[in-house]
């Protein structure tokens, strides 16, 4: 199993994110890429809510996503990449961390929309305190041109900032105001490289202007949520998000 160095753990704790050069090998990435493309080529067979468009109503900037892709392709979570992701999550969160859900995000060639600045925890159930992270696996080289990840260092130590829906019909969120700290770190990656980020870390990804789709798998892990005496006030959330 992959293990982070003490310096990498310290960097994650300090910055709220970490870049790693390789989560698995090239052979597995090639296999995962084929499975990923087959999933996005499907036009039916998904449960309600598992195939969504984050940029609904955003003209000429599609950002399709498959939630729970392992339901339709179990191999996505049966290889070395996922085992390494789980090992890293246990190292950072502790042995009691569990999977919290996965998703696949596609930025189509030349028109793939930007992922706006947001915090993942803004999507989560406001009745609970959360401690979780996401591990973002690149299935091809990821650059500024095709929409690599960007992070605001140290933002995980702050509160959940006000968010808003991207549009009336969208599930996607963005910050209501620009990030309060203009400094950002751009994380280009080779194929098989990955970024890790805390659920509160401010992050975004640019549009895809390249001639190839930008493909990423995201693995989520976290500790059991803790019920709060007073829920967080997240007015941007829709009642149907939680049951």
Give the helix/strand layout.
Elements lengths: L5 H10 L1 E4 L5 H16 L9 E3 L10 E4 L12 H14 L4 E10 L7 E4 L9 E2 L2 E7 L10 E3 L11 E3 L7 E3 L9 E3 L6 E5 L4 E3 L8 E9 L3 E2 L16
Antiparallel strand pairs: 1-12, 2-3, 3-4, 4-14, 5-13, 6-15, 7-12, 7-14, 8-11, 8-13, 9-10
Plain-language structure description:
- The chain contains 3 helices and 15 strands.
- With 243 residues, the chain is α+β, with helices and mostly antiparallel strands.
- The protein has one domain: q2cbj1_9rhob like domain (Jelly Rolls), CATH 2.60.120.620.
- The strands form 4 sheets. It has a 7-stranded antiparallel sheet, covered by helices on one side. Strands 5-13-8-11 form a 4-stranded antiparallel sheet, with no helix packed on it.
- The radius of gyration is 17 Å and the shape is globular.
């Amino acid at each position: 199993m992959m293990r982070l160095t003490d310096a990498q753990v310290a960097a994650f704790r300090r910055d709220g994110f970490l870049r790693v050069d390789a989560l698995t090998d090239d052979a597995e990435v090639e296999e995962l890429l084929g499975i990923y493309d087959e999933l996005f080529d499907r036009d039916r067979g998904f449960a309600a809510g598992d195939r969504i468009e984050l940029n609904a109503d955003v003209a000429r900037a599609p950002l399709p996503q498959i939630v729970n892709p392992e339901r339709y392709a179990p191999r996505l979570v049966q290889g070395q990449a996922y085992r390494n992701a789980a090992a890293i999550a246990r190292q950072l969160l502790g042995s009691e961390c569990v999977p919290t859900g996965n998703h696949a995000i596609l930025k189509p060639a030349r028109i793939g929309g930007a992922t706006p600045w947001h915090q993942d925890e803004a999507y989560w159930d406001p009745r609970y305190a959360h401690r979780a992270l996401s591990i973002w696996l690149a299935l091809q080289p990821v650059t500024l041109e095709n929409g690599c990840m960007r992070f605001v260092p140290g933002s995980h130590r702050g509160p959940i900032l006000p968010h808003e829906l991207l549009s009336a019909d969208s599930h996607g969120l963005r910050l209501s105001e620009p990030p309060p700290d203009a400094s950002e770190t751009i994380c280009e990656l080779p194929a098989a490289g990955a970024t890790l980020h805390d659920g509160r870390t401010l992050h975004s990804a640019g549009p895809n202007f390249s001639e190839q789709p930008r493909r990423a798998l995201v693995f989520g892990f976290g500790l059991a949520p803790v019920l709060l005496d007073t829920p967080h006030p997240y007015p941007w959330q829709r009642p149907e998000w939680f049951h």
